[in-house]
Design brief:
Chain A: Keywords: Glycosyltransferase, Transferase. The complex is a heterodimer of chains A (about 300) and B (about 625). Helix content of chain A is about 40%, strand content about 20%. Chain A is of the alpha/beta class. Chain B starts with 14 loop residues before the first helix and ends in an 11-residue tail after the last helix. In chain B, strands 11, 12, 13, 14, 15, 16, 17, 20, 21 and 22 form a 10-stranded mixed beta sheet that branches. In chain B, strands 1, 2, 3, 4, 5, 6, 7 and 8 form an 8-stranded mixed beta sheet that branches. Chain B folds into 2 domains: about 85-320, Alpha-Beta Complex (Spore Coat Polysaccharide Biosynthesis Protein SpsA, Chain A), CATH 3.90.550.10; about 355-600, Spore Coat Polysaccharide Biosynthesis Protein SpsA, Chain A (Alpha-Beta Complex). Chain B is elongated. By secondary structure, chain B is of the alpha/beta class. Classes of the chains: A alpha/beta (about 300), B alpha/beta (about 625). Chains A and B meet through helix 3 and helix 5 of A and helix 13, strand 9 and strand 10 of B.
Chain lengths: ~300, ~625
C-alpha cells in the first residue's frame, strides 16, 4: 500500500558519488509521499546514476547545481529556498547514505502536525537512525535534550542528523540557514542547537527507523568496549574543526561545549591508537588549529 | 468595612544610588552586547537575584512609583464618595468573584480576601473552591472568613481537579450576572469592583471586560505595569491580552462551557480566545486603569519547566482558535524578542501574487537606494518596482535600468508624493502595492513575505513594517494618534532588541496608522478607498489619512515587527526647503484635525497611561524623586 502524498512536503537529496542502487531505492520510496524531489549534485553524475535519474519516474527529480562540491550546508540551504519558493511548508532532507522507507515521510509529517497541535514549535523531526544491514557500521548516537519532555510520541533531542530529517521551512526562515562554511560535518548539530536557542525544538520519532550508513565501518577500542565510526582523515579534520568552531558560538550550551571538548580529546587519542597513528592525529590537530582560527569553508588541506 | 493593612515599601533610596542605577540601566539598554554578556555571567545567579531586581531604584521603578502616587492613589475622601455612590444606586449589579484555592499560604489568602473587603463597591460575592488542598489551613481560614461575612461562600472539592475544574465549580456557584476571575494570592485595588460596576451600568450587554494590571512582590512593591490597548484580536493571538482583571458575563461563560481542563497553565488565554470568538467586538471593553495586582513569588517557585508548559498550552489554545476560525496552514512560532509570546505566520497561496513596489524620488536619473535590497536581497521573485520621479534635468532622456522588473514613471516637476504614488499605483500590475521610501534598506530576505502574508488576509487593510534608523534606534513601529500633532511615534528611541511595554515592539498588533515609508496593501483596497488624498494632503499625512479611512471602512491596520528595515537617510515629509516643509506639514495637520477630530481624541490602540508613565520616568530619572511610603491604592 502506498503512503498518501503530502502536498506541503518536498524532498531534497544531496548526491556525492552515490551508489545507483541506493539512489534508485530512495527515489522509489519517495514517489508517492512527497510533492517534489530535488537532487543537489555535489559531484558529477556517473553514467549509471544518470540513468537512474533519467528513468521515467512519475515524479521526475529537479536537478540543482553543476556537480561542483559546495558542501552540505549550501546544498541544504539552496534546496530549502527552492522548496519555500515553490510553496512547500516542509522539506525532507536526505543524503545518499540513508535508505528511507515509503512510510517514513508521512509518519514524520503526522508527528510534526501532532507536535504543533500540542503547542510545540518543531524546527525538525527525524526518524531513528539505525545501522543499515550489512554495512558494518554503527548507528549515530542520540542525545536527549535535558529539561524537555517527550510529546506527541516524539523524543526531544539536542540534534537530529540531517539525513532523514523533516525541516519546517517557516522555522528554517526564523532560525536561519545551515552554516555553509562548515562544509560538511556538524552542520546539523549547529543548526539544531541554534534552533533550540531560538526556542524551537528538535524531535526524533523512535518508532520510525531509518537505515543509515555512518562512516566506513567501525573502530573497536579494546578493553574499553567503545565503538567509533571509522572515518578518513579528511572527515576527522572537518569534525574537529567544526566542533572547535562551535565552542565560540553563543547558541551552543555550555554543557555541550564541555562535552564536545572532552569527547574530541578522547576521540583524537582513540582514533590515533586504533586507526594508524599519525594521519589521524595530524587531521585532528589541523582541525583544532583551523577551528580556533576560524579557518572554515571548503577543505584546502591535503590529507593524501 | 475594614481597610487593608498598607504593604511596607522599601526605605527611600539616596539620590546618588538612584542616579547611578538609572545611568547604568540606561547604558545597558543602549548596548545589547554588554547586556547579553552581563546576563551570561549573571545567568546562574539570576533565579536568586530576580526577586530583588525590580526593587532596584531604576528610572523605570521610580517613574512607576511616581505614576502611582500621581495617578493611581485613592484618597480617603474619594473612597468615601465612591462608597456612598455605590450605596445610593438602584439595582446595583452583583459581581461574582470566582477564586480557585490550593495550598494557599494563609497570609496571602487573608490579604487577597482583605483586598475584596476593602472595595468601595459593596455588592459582590466571593465564590471560592478549595481544590482539595492537603493542608487543613485553607479550609479553616475559609470557614472563618465565611462565618463573619455572608458575601463569602466556599466549597471544597473531594478530589484535586486543577485550576480549570476548580474555577468552573466556582463559576457554578456564582449568582451575579458577571464573573470576575481572581487568583488566590493576588490583590484588587479598592476601586476595582467600582470601576467594573460602572462599566456594566454603561454597557449592560457587556460580555467581556479587562483592565490594565501590574505585579506585586512580597513586600507590597508594585512593578511591571501592563497598560493594554483596547481589544485587539490580532494581539490576543500573540499573548493573553485579557488576562487580569478578566470580567465575563456569566451567561457567556456557561454557554461556552467555562474553562477547559486540557489547557491548564494557560486556561485563561484559552477562555479569552473562545469567549471573544463567541461574542461581538462591541461587547468587549477595556478599562484603562490598573485594577489587578498580580502576586509574584519571592522564591523561584515557578520552574522553567512549568513556564515552558504554560507557553505550550497557550500555543495549543491559539492553534485551536485559528483552526476554529477556518485558518488553514498557519504556523505558530516563538516571537524572537519575547519567546513566551507568539508570532502567527499566515500562509501565502501559490502562485504567489505580484507585488508592485512604488517608490517616489524628488529627482530622477538614478536608481533609488532601496533598489538593490528590493531586487537582489529579497526572497520574493514576483516583484516589480515602479519609480515615480520627475526627469533629472532639462533635455535628459529617460533612465534605463538594467533590471527588467524596474520601471520608470515620469511625473511633472512639483508633483506631491501622494499624487506620484497614485500615478504609480495606476501603473502597477501587482495585486499587492508596497509603498516604500527610497532610502529604506532591506535587513532580512523575508520581509516582503511577512508583509504579503498579512496584507492578503481579508480583515487587513494595510500593514506596516518596523523601521530602524542608522543609529540603531527605532524610527517607526506604527503611529499613535495625537489631537495636536495628529500622530506621534510609538516608543521613540527604542533599540532593535527592545520588547516595549507589554510586547508593543515585539508582536504583531493593530495600530491606528502606519507610515507610508513602508506600507503594503491590496490594490483592490487601495482603489476602493480612492487612493491617497492628493488634493488636501499632497505632501504629508496622506498615509495616516488613508489608514484612518481604511479603519472607518471596518478594516484593520497592522504593524508587524517581523518585517524590519533600516532607513539610511532622514525621514522627510517632502523634498522642500525646511520652512516650506514645516508649513506644508502644519497645513496637513490642520486638515487632519478638522477631518478626524473624533478619532484623534482617543487612540484605541495606544493606552494614554503609557505617555503619562514615560513622562514620569523621564522626570524621575532627572530629578530627585525617591521611593515613598504608602500602600496599595
Amino acid at each position: 500500500m502506498s503512503a498518501p502524498l503530502d502536498a506541503g512536503l518536498a524532498a531534497g537529496i544531496v548526491l556525492f558519488h552515490p551508489a545507483p542502487a541506493l539512489l534508485e531505492a530512495s527515489l522509489a520510496s519517495l514517489q508517492d509521499s512527497v510533492g517534489r524531489i530535488y537532487l543537489f549534485l555535489n559531484a558529477p553524475l556517473s553514467p549509471a546514476t544518470r540513468a537512474v535519474v533519467d528513468r521515467p519516474w512519475p515524479r521526475p527529480a529537479v536537478l540543482l547545481n553543476d556537480g561542483t562540491n559546495l558542501g552540505l550546508g549550501t546544498a541544504y540551504n539552496r534546496m530549502a529556498a527552492m522548496a519555500r519558493a515553490d510553496g512547500f511548508s516542509a522539506l525532507l532532507l536526505l543524503d545518499q547514505d540513508s535508505s528511507p522507507l515509503p512510510s517514513m515521510a508521512p509518519a514524520l509529517c503526522e508527528a510534526r502536525a501532532r507536535l504543533i497541535a500540542a503547542g510545540e514549535c518543531p524546527a525538525v523531526v527525524g526518524p531513528l537512525p539505525v545501522a543499515a544491514r550489512g554495512c558494518g557500521c554503527k548507528a549515530p548516537r542520540c542525545f536527549r535534550r535535558g529539561g524537555a519532555v517527550p510529546a506527541a510520541g516524539a523524543v526531544p533531542l539536542e540534534f537530529v542528523i540531517s539525513s532523514g530529517s523533516l525541516i519546517d521551512l517557516a522555522a528554517f526562515e526564523a532560525v536561519g540557514g545551515f552554516r555553509e562554511d562548515f562544509f560538511i560535518d556538524a552542520v546539523d548539530i549547529e543548526w539544531c542547537l541554534r534552533a533550540w536557542a531560538r526556542h524551537y525544538s528538535c524531535w526524533m520519532l523512535s518508532s520510525v527507523p531509518m537505515p543509515h550508513r555512518l562512516g566506513q565501518g567501525v573502530l573497536r577500542v579494546p578493553l574499553l568496549g567503545l565503538r567509533l565510526a571509522r572515518q578518513p582523515p579528511f572527515r576527522l579534520y572537518t569534525h574537529a574543526r567544526n566542533q572547535v568552531a562551535m565552542l565560540r558560538l553563543p547558541s551552543v550550551p555550555l554543557a555541550w561545549k564541555c562535552r564536545a571538548a572532552l569527547a574530541m580529546a578522547a576521540q583524537s587519542v582513540l582514533h590515533a591508537c586504533a586507526s594508524g597513528g599519525w594521519p589521524a592525529l595530524r587531521a585532528f590537530a589541523l582541525g583544532v588549529a583551523d577551528g580556533l582560527r576560524s579557518r572554515l569553508g571548503p577543505v584546502t588541506r591535503d590529507f593524501g | 468595612m475594614t481597610t487593608p493593612k498598607p504593604f511596607p515599601l522599601p526605605r527611600p533610596a539616596p539620590r546618588p544610588v538612584a542616579r547611578i542605577a538609572a545611568a547604568v540601566m540606561g547604558e545597558l539598554r543602549r548596548h545589547p552586547g554588554l547586556r547579553a554578556g552581563l546576563r551570561g555571567l549573571a545567568g546562574p545567579a539570576l533565579p536568586l537575584l530576580r526577586p530583588y531586581l525590580h526593587a532596584l531604584p531604576t528610572a523605570d521603578a521610580l517613574g512607576y512609583q511616581r505614576w502611582i502616587e500621581e495617578h493611581d492613589t485613592l484618597s480617603d475622601a474619594e473612597a468615601q464618595a465612591m462608597r456612598q455612590e455605590a450605596l445610593a444606586g438602584r439595582n446595583p449589579p452583583l459581581l461574582s468573584i470566582v477564586m480557585p484555592a490550593y495550598e494557599t499560604p494563609p497570609a496571602l489568602l487573608r490579604q487577597a480576601i482583605a483586598s475584596l473587603k476593602a472595595q468601595t463597591w459593596p455588592h459582590w460575592e466571593l465564590c471560592v473552591v478549595d481544590d482539595a488542598s492537603p493542608s487543613s489551613h485553607v479550609e479553616a481560614l475559609l470557614s472563618e472568613m465565611a462565618a463573619v461575612d455572608p458575601r463569602i461562600r466556599w466549597r471544597r472539592r473531594t478530589r484535586n481537579g486543577h485550576i480549570a475544574r476548580a474555577t468552573n465549580d466556582a463559576i457554578g456557584m456564582a449568582r451575579g450576572d458577571h464573573v470576575l476571575l481572581m487568583d488566590h494570592d493576588d490583590l484588587l485595588p479598592a476601586r476595582a469592583l467600582h470601576e467594573v460596576a460602572a462599566l456594566i451600568r454603561r454597557h449592560p450587554d457587556l460580555d467581556i471586560a479587562y483592565s490594565d494590571e501590574d505585579k506585586i512582590d512580597g513586600q507590597g512593591r508594585r512593578f511591571a505595569p501592563y497598560f493594554k490597548p483596547d481589544f485587539d484580536p490580532e494581539l490576543l493571538r500573540a499573548q493573553n491580552l485579557v488576562s487580569h482583571l478578566g470580567v465575563y458575563s456569566t451567561r457567556l461563560l456557561r454557554r461556552i462551557g467555562g474553562l477547559r481542563p486540557g489547557f491548564n497553565g494557560s486556561q485563561d488565554h484559552d477562555l479569552a480566545l473562545r469567549a471573544s470568538a463567541a461574542t461581538m467586538p462591541a461587547r468587549i471593553h477595556h478599562i484603562t486603569r490598573i485594577l489587578y495586582h498580580w502576586r509574584q513569588p519571592t522564591q523561584g517557585s515557578y520552574s522553567k519547566r512549568e513556564a515552558a508548559r504554560c507557553v505550550r498550552t497557550s500555543r495549543a489554545a491559539v492553534m485551536e482558535s485559528l483552526a476554529s476560525a477556518g485558518e488553514v496552514g498557519v504556523v505558530l512560532q516563538p516571537a524572537p524578542l519575547a519567546p513566551g509570546w507568539h508570532r502567527v505566520v499566515y500562509p501565502v497561496a501559490q502562485p504567489r501574487p505580484l507585488v508592485s513596489v512604488l517608490v517616489t524620488m524628488p529627482v530622477g536619473g538614478r536608481l533609488p537606494d532601496c533598489a538593490d535590497g528590493v531586487l537582489r536581497r529579497t526572497n520574493w521573485a514576483e516583484l516589480e518596482m515602479i519609480v515615480a520621479a520627475p526627469p533629472a534635468g532639462p533635455g535628459s532622456g529617460p533612465f534605463r535600468p538594467l533590471d527588467a522588473r524596474l520601471r520608470w514613471l515620469e511625473v511633472p516637476p512639483g508633483t506631491g508624493r501622494a499624487a506620484a504614488l497614485n500615478l504609480a499605483a495606476a501603473e502597477a500590475r501587482g495585486s499587492l502595492l508596497l509603498m516604500l521610501d527610497e532610502a529604506a534598506d532591506v535587513l532580512s530576505p523575508y520581509w516582503v513575505g511577512e508583509l504579503a502574508s498579512q496584507a492578503l488576509r481579508q480583515p487587513v487593510g494595510a500593514v506596516g513594517a518596523k523601521l530602524m534608523g542608522r543609529d540603531g534606534r527605532l524610527l517607526h513601529a506604527g503611529f499613535a494618534l495625537d489631537p495636536t500633532a495628529v500622530v506621534r511615534p510609538v516608543a521613540p528611541g527604542a533599540m532593535a532588541g527592545d520588547v516595549g511595554p507589554g510586547g508593543l515592539l515585539a508582536l504583531t498588533r493593530q495600530v491606528s496608522a502606519v507610515s507610508g515609508a513602508v506600507m503594503m496593501l491590496r490594490r483592490a483596497v487601495f482603489q476602493a478607498a480612492g487612493g491617497f488624498d492628493e488634493e488636501s494632503l499632497p505632501h504629508a499625512l496622506h498615509d495616516v489619512d488613508l489608514c484612518l479611512r481604511l479603519q472607518w471602512r471596518g478594516m484593520r491596520v497592522l504593524h508587524t515587527p517581523f518585517a524590519m528595515l533600516m532607513h539610511r537617510g532622514v525621514m522627510e515629509a517632502l523634498p522642500a526647503a525646511p520652512v516650506e516643509a514645516a508649513a506644508a506639514l502644519e497645513a496637513a495637520r490642520a486638515v487632519m484635525r478638522q477631518r478626524w477630530a473624533e478619532a484623534l481624541a482617543a487612540d484605541p490602540f495606544q493606552n494614554p497611561n503609557l505617555q503619562v508613565l514615560a513622562a514620569c520616568m523621564t522626570h524621575a530619572a532627572g530629578s530627585g524623586f525617591e521611593w515613598s511610603r504608602g500602600g496599595v491604592a
